[in-house]
């Protein structure tokens, strides 16, 4: 495992979530923010993003600006010519951390400043307090802005943008006949755009906290009820049982005990304890898999996927 600390602005922003677990963050940092056994299929969200990017590209090519539905960024006139590949979109922060990522859009406004735009295929939230991931999203676009402005010298970043694309699913449910054409189902996505203020000191503060966690030899105390911590404990319970090979040891001890009743009770208690720990671990993992979604609590429910 490399000792160099690398992190994306989105993962860094998880430190601002109200229910962040520092223990989970420590483990994920050591794993390079690639959780084991993660089989979440995000292909459909990537397809949606490509469609959303195509719509912005259509308007920029056709009109040289965005329509009123994209206010307050109707003054966007073009895309910035820069690679958005996560292997190229990055820079070494003054703290020594390699900050990198893959922004959805890097756009140029009429005044030549830059907007970092992030597409969200989700229902928009009208109030900041309602969207539990909003602080993380704000850090995400701010961090991308820092890379673009300070790292890649692309120009002044004047704002970030969260572009929610709200699927009007209830309209389809209520009157499906209106959305069926030639055997195909059509659904409308309505854009709702939020402007994000850019404050790079926010990144500096969070990086200090992240580095402190990274440098710790042991994980910080976990948050009560954290699903990630429950998974870690479950895996440790199973692994400890396998590594110690207690069943074989118990059988050997029993054979040497001359049928001692005290030893028998102890071995039976060990056996029962192992069964309960394995059962609890498997149940925890199974139940957590059932709730793996973009709105789920825990970092795994709001993950980044880089090819």
N to C succession of SSEs: EHHHEEEEEHEHEEEHHHH
Give the structural class: alpha+beta
What composes the largest sheet? 5 strands, mixed
Mean pLDDT over the full residue set: 83
CATH topology of the largest domain: Lambda Exonuclease, Chain A
**Which CATH architecture of the largest domain would you pick?**
Alpha-Beta Complex
Note the overall shape: extended
Describe the strand arrangement of the main beta sheet, using strand numbers.
2-5-6-7-10
**Please, what is the oligomeric state?**
single chain
Number of β-strand runs: 10
- Which CATH class of the largest domain? Alpha Beta
Low-confidence stretches: 289-303
- What is the distance, rounded to the nearest whole angstrom, between the alpha carbons of the first and last residues? 20 Å
Residue fraction in strands: 15-25%
For the record, the count of structural domains works out to: 2
Radius of gyration: 25 Å
Q: Portion of residues in helices?
A: 40-55%
Task: Please provide a written account of the structure.
With 307 residues, this protein is an alpha+beta fold. It has two domains: 6-221, Lambda Exonuclease, Chain A (Alpha-Beta Complex); 227-290. It has helices at 9-13, 22-30, 43-63, 134-151, 169-174, 201-215, 227-244, 246-256, 261-290; strands at residues 6-7, 76-79, 90-92, 98-100, 105-109, 114-120, 157-167, 180-181, 184-185, 189-196. The strands form three sheets. Strands 2-5-6-7-10 form a five-stranded mixed beta sheet, with helices on both faces.
